Amino acid sequence: MAVYHDARCRLCRREGMKLFLKGQRCFSDKCAFERRGYAPGEHGKSRRIKETNYGQQLREKQKARRIYGLLERQFRHTFTKASIAPGVTGEVLLQMLERRLDNVVFRLGFAPSRSAARQLVRHGHVTVGGRKLDIPSAQVRAGEEIAVREKSRSLTSIAASLESRKGQGVPEWLELNATGMSGRVLNIPTRQSIPVPINEQLIVELYSK
Question: Which segments of the chain are extended strands (E)?
């Protein structure tokens, strides 16, 4: 599977907002967006672009793709599945992105970022329903338990992530047992319980052309 290897801070600067792609670094004075809050590149400071409707739609799609850490082909595939599923396409798209296993691991606080959560999953440190699952894109279902494997609970990175996220809570559609390093999906998330700054309707309009 293709993986983005370039500097992630450039993505925040390109979108003109913090996407929180690097965990606790995004909350420190080391954050590149805080130091250089303009678009990357030689002409980033002076770049003035009058965005068309298409440009606005493209930016929303790129923002969503970068927040969840998907490449274009993966994101388009997810949209295609959302478009044929019952319900409002934009909301279903966000629900499918939120229910990805790597995102749930991140939301529960087992990893400081979605990229770190993806690595935990791919290295076999996570179980779903008591069975090891190493597919980051796997869709979790309501009622399923997501946990750190018994032999992986001594990893300092997981403990450090849980400690740093202490007091922040988890989304209302999830339940966390920090002591047992496990969590449960209580229900399918609603749009109101998905805290991402995305106008999903613009993404639907872009792909519907």
Answer: 126-128, 131-132, 145-148, 174-177, 182-185
